[in-house]
Protein 1
Amino acid sequence: MNYAQRELFLIALKQQFTDIFNTSKASKDTAELRFRAQGFVHAGELLELCSRAEVKQLMEDVHKDVFGISVAERKPKEYDRRQQALKLGDYDYFDEPAFNRLR
């Protein structure tokens, strides 16, 4: 494995994760960016430029940089608030931009 290629791959992957999370934070569709990153990661694994554990750690680090909390901390809290709003019929919750609800 070429060290320079590995470093270039990880820098590019970090930028892709940053783009995905910043786009999500802006309440925009991330599907295309996510699919591109998934293919990129798959290629990196096939070429032995990264491991699944490294990718997960990098994604977690970038998520913390962008949102200030871990992936695990963000998902359940937002999910629970959304479910509670639906249960109570609190549709004002959905009037607030998702960007603000995620803070």
Protein 2
Amino acid sequence: MLTWEDDVEVHALRRRGWSIAAIARHTGFDRKTVRKYLAGDGQPGVRARPGPDPFDPFVDYVTARLTEDPHLWARTLYDELEELGFGLSYQSLTRNIRARNLRPVCEACRTATGRPNAVIPHAAGDETQWDWLELPDPPALWGWGKTAHLLVGSLSHSGKWRGFLASSEDQPHLVAGLDRVTRGLGGVTRVWRFDRMATVCDPGSGRVTASFAGVAKHYGVSVAICPARRGNRKGVVEKVNHTAAQRWWRTLADDMTVEAAQASLDRFAAVRGDTRLRATADGRSSVAVVAKNEPLAPVPATPYPVIVSETRTASRQALVSYRGNRYSVPPELAAANVVVSHPVGGVFVDIATSSGIVIARHRMAADGLGVMVRDSGHVIALETAAMATAASGRPHRRKERIPPGPAAKAAAAQLLQLKQPSTAEIETSTPSTDSTVVDLSVYERAAQNRTIQ
């Protein structure tokens, strides 16, 4: 068998006037092989079989079964072929299926990338597309685990977008993100479009849940749910997700706080996103200019009343870090898990124990200021507890000698006294004197008589 490189070289040498024998000596191939490929009887890269292909008799059955069920496992098909006399290996079956392209494409399960996509017009001020973007490996100081969540909202007509970082995708964080992003976009469109997220609708039927219906009424929008398996219906926000992940999240520093990351995201969306040029009917214009001309309804003065809760761990100074600030708790909760909750847009923040008992309430400071909000009662209690601990004495060294003290010696004396046996026990344990005495002189005389004899 000649490769394509060998076949090209053989034909080039032949065009220079070389004989078949000279070409065979130069390339190291047999003269009959060279002659066959020069005549066009051989196919480069394909080795001719010495006999008939043993897979040919089973091609029709394999084709029929994979046409009936495109998702049929090759292992299951191999079990069926064994009963029909199939003598090749499982690897030969899978290789022939790939090489002969016997498995058809399932049209019902084709991804959106393999389908023709319709151009969907978006009128100005008509639709906002929403989607959650999962971002892996957030900075460790955030305390969010392995995944951060970014709610992205984008105006379908202009492409203007904003985002909201959250530690969870539950409904309270969704509502908080909807309010913040909507205010960042500058207004409310007529329709909000979502995929089938469980916090908005029933994933099976696509019907809006009762809890989210109140949110939609508060902002005066209609809710549109994407059809199942139609990812391109939200193509505008999907492209924004790709941009946010590759151009912003990929370069985020490890030492950046959540509040600093949120400010960085807002700045990126305004500087990089709003300055993009778009083709319009009047020529090329930036996203910011196109979005400014969209007829958006004003955002309600107050956010939708929903309580956002997050779990935090109090420090040894009885302080709880939340949104770039620190709030005090009683010293009994130092280094304990607490639940921080507050209404969206509210003035106060509540801190409760893990069982739900509210033990502190503070006025919320602006996010990211780095201020310390402390209650005077917490300050006095913390200082009292700290001084009581400080007066307890120096800590023990690991190799310090500490013999038993007076209390331990007194306890040991009581144990020894209990251990002494009573009079009855002594009498019981005294051995009896009524034992048989053996006279050894009898044995001595017997031994002497035996010696004399």
Protein 3
Amino acid sequence: MNMFTRGFQGRRTAESDRVPPGQYRTDDFPVLSVGPTPRVDTDDWTFTVTAETGAAHSWTWDEFLGLPQERPHVDIHCVTRWSKLDTDWVGVSLDTLLADVESTAEYVLAHSYGGYTTNLPLEDLTDGRAWVVHTFDGEPLAAEHGGPARLLVPHLYFWKSAKWVRGLTLTQEDEPGFWEQGGYHDYGDPWREQRYRGD
């Protein structure tokens, strides 16, 4: 005897509503990188925001740690289909880092130690939506996860949260980064399954 109405899928829970289509939840934190992991000593680390005019604003590690720190508690979603819920970070809001930067740019190209780049609309880094983070789950961010600091843009697929970040270049035109040049989607919204070009 059939106990369910045809097409019954069960009830979605509040937690499952936080997992985008095509994703599965994991409690692990998978490590996915191309090439060797850069090892950046905090004594050598700097973060630089360069406006489209060429004007640059830079912070050493100690100056960066002296900025107001925030504690984002967010879900993250990888293009390889895993989602990790309720992650805890410590870092500096991009609103803080961009506060004194005069710019009319609409786009950003993020640069990493090791040569990796990724592109984002500037508006996706402001209004409390993005951070440069240095701590994960109460511990200094491990090199394999992008330490000493990485970009954190949790509303987009995680390749947009560039590991080993060293700076941002503000631009008037969109300039595709490493994975975007290789066929990944230019924007990368997990809720719209924008994994690859044309999605």
Protein 4
Amino acid sequence: MTLSLAGRAAAHVRYVTPGGDPLAVAEFLRTALTNPFNIALLAAGGVGGVAVAAVYLRLRPFQRDLAVFRDTMAGYRDLLPWLLRLSVGLPLVGAGFAGYYFSPAVTLPSPTFVRLFGIAVGFLLLFGFGTRLIAFVGLVGYLGGLAFEPALLLAVEYVPAFAAIALLGGGRPSADHVVSRLADADTVYSRIDPFYRAVAVPFVDRVDPYRALVPVIVRVGLGVSFVYLGITQKLMNPGNATAVVAKYNLTAVVPVSPELWVVGAGVTEAAVGTLLILGAFTRGASAVAFLLFTTTLFGLPDDPVLAHISLFGLASALLVTGAGEWSVDAWLRGRTESAAEWVDRVSERAA
């Protein structure tokens, strides 16, 4: 029930409404959380989520399916740089042509710079040319803008995305991959390229040990984005959030109060973000995040979908990588039998 409440309200509130009447946060939450029906539904959603997790850990169903799924996802790891480049390059090109800076909520007084920056950085990432350098330029551009425009926190997912791309490089297919093959072979190009062996190879050798941090960077960054959006855009901004509910007549979709819509959306986003930060049931939480984005895509016809592609990409990346180290999933993996180990054990017993 909580997910159904949150789905269509999970958009960036400022992207789809010019604003609503200001509401006192304390009064709004008091109204929402003193209603017995609202409390019952929210409690049922929370207890249901905990019960599902407990039953899964106890019974471990669908082990063969999970083993096949994880093995399939692992086969996509070499395409992870391409996935991240597309996820960042496409919205940046769109932002450049539309004239906003990373987030549709932010326009700067220098429209020419904004357009050139978004288009140039976006296209170079799409082509995968000078990928690590361009990712660093993009990160500096975002952080520099954030120092002057706090509204850029609405697009905070660009930080882990740029950091992950800087660690992974262009991957393949990319212009960097083509250039590296030419420079590494006995070609005319390899004799005139002053950059590849002198700079690129030593830098990659130095960065490679940190590639294992990519799943951690992506899930923590995406989790922080979810928590921030759930708290600041929903729970702490009830006026604008209820304006979204009214604009799309969401109470006709699920007949509950506007307060429950807003609180349900905020709590769900914050809960999904917390799971991602902790690295608990990471692929499941990523699938829920993907479902929320997809529901927004089809449920809010005037939502700037292009601005959400980066979030789609990070959630998809976590489906491929899983939680990585320093996570609840890694802790559980060391103490319980994995799906692949279960399949091997069952197969040996059958044999």
